[in-house]
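Troubleshooting log. The previous structure file for this entry was overwritten by mistake, so regenerating from the original sequence record. Sequence copied from the archived sheet and checked twice against the printout by T.R.
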Amino acid sequence: MCHVNSFIINMCVFDLLDVLQSKEDVGKSDPALERQVEIIRSLVASYLAIISKMTRDLVPKTIMHLMIRDVSCVVSFDFFV
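Regenerated output below.
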């Protein structure tokens, strides 16, 4: 469930990036709007960096957890048989 929500959030972020890039000319006339766009771009880039780091950190841990759980099930089954 968490992975699905994360996927949906990432898709929304990419859609937001597309909108920001397509509206680039509009912000040129208004410095305040241009500053807000830059802040949002910075926040989105930071968010994506955090998500990427978390994914790189969690994938090996999840794989090891699943491997150890499966091995422990096999070992416990062998002890009972």
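The chain has one domain: 2-80. Archived copy saved in two places this time.
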